[in-house]
């Protein structure tokens, strides 16, 4: 078979194994902090990006989504699903992969797993928002919902905000115990709580990160005192929320991209014109963040394509320094660009 891939045929690919190597070689808290810096850089140039709500295919079991964007020079997209039932079958609730390409040629320049990377990106975004919105000097965070995202959230908030006390609650206590074991020795004072009410006692920040695809009330109005910051991560598709509506009415609400968040976020419970502040405005100083000690701030997190673009950009930079990737023979590259058929025929196996 007369074929050998050229340099133009090869695209860097980061497997799950190599993603884990990259994270460990970098250090997980450093990785989260640097990823947050990339996200902030891109939010500060928000106007350059193509922006559209993600393309979603909903079913009774879950959702499959495509999340595309471009800054005019590079194009990126992520394929991601959300299927809460999967854990009962030994599968992940969320899986993902992503692609980055050059706009001027259309050629892909990176393919990567994004199941692990999405967990890191989500946590980095949460902590970045909290750096602007949480009470000054915050040290204690309640984490309600101790599934696959919980440890990532804790480490991101430690790295970016300085959180060192965790109050954990999950309806499955074994999930909280697993989270505590996984974070042992990382400098946290950890309490496993018996109820959401107990978890929020004394917390400066409350992170809700549950998975069930339903309207839920993880936090009720009486559980939220003045001055708290809420990091609402779990509500991320139509029909899926975590907070009582009255909490929203008392809060200053911050979002990534309003046209998407009004469909998928906690604010789907509110009128379409309810005021919100976009995070890019806060990061650039064009909008207010936390303005008072007693203000309740709420980051209504749903995840937006620009954050995944930032993650892809960061990974591309990292593999320029680290050898943890493979080269995929992905793109046909005939000697004559007009002779794709000839390339195919020349690769025909010859009789022995």
UniProtKB/TrEMBL annotation:
InterPro entries: NAD(P)-bd_dom_sf, ODC_Mu_crystall, ODC_N
Pfam family, one: OCD_Mu_crystall
Membrane-spanning residues: none
Superkingdom: Bacteria
Cross-referenced Gene3D superfamilies: NAD(P)-binding Rossmann-like Domain (3.40.50.720), ornithine cyclodeaminase, domain 1 (3.30.1780.10)
PANTHER family according to UniProt: KETIMINE REDUCTASE MU-CRYSTALLIN
Family: Belongs to the ornithine cyclodeaminase/mu-crystallin family.
Protein name: Ornithine cyclodeaminase
Species of provenance: Nitratireductor mangrovi
Organism lineage string: Bacteria, Pseudomonadati, Pseudomonadota, Alphaproteobacteria, Hyphomicrobiales
């Amino acid at each position: 078979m007369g074929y050998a891939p050229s340099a133009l045929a090869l695209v860097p690919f980061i497997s799950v194994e190599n993603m884990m190597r990259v994270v460990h070689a970098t250090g997980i808290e450093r990785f989260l902090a640097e990823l947050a810096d990339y996200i902030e850089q891109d939010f500060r140039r928000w106007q350059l990006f193509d922006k559209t709500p993600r393309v979603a295919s909903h079913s009774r079991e879950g959702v499959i989504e495509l999340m595309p964007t471009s800054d005019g020079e590079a194009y990126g997209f992520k394929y991601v699903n959300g299927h809460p039932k999967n854990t009962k079958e030994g599968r992940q609730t969320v899986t993902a992969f992503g692609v980055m390409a050059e706009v001027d040629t259309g050629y892909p320049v990176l393919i990567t797993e994004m199941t692990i990377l999405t967990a890191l990106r989500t946590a980095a975004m949460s902590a970045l928002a909290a750096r602007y919105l949480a009470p000054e000097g915050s040290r204690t965070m309640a984490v309600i919902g101790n599934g696959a995202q919980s440890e990532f959230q804790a480490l991101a908030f430690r790295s970016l905000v300085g959180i060192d006390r965790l109050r954990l609650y999950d309806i499955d206590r074994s999930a909280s115990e697993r989270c505590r074991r996984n974070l042992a020795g990382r400098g946290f004072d950890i309490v496993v709580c018996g109820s959401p009410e107990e978890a929020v006692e004394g917390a400066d920040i409350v992170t809700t990160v549950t998975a069930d695809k339903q309207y839920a009330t993880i936090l009720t109005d009486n559980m939220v005192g003045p001055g708290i910051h809420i990091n609402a991560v779990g509500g991320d598709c139509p029909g899926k929320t975590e907070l009582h509506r009255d909490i929203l009415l008392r809060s200053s609400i911050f979002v990534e991209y309003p046209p998407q968040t009004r469909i998928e976020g906690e604010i789907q419970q509110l009128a379409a014109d309810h005021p919100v502040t976009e995070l890019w405005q806060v990061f650039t100083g064009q909008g207010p963040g936390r303005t008072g000690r007693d203000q309740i701030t709420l980051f209504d997190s749903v995840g937006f394509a620009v954050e995944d673009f930032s993650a892809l950009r960061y990974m591309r930079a990292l593999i320029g320094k680290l050898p943890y990737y493979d080269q995929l023979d992905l793109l046909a590259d005939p000697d004559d660009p007009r002779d794709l058929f000839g390339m195919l025929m020349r690769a025909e196996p010859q009789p022995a």
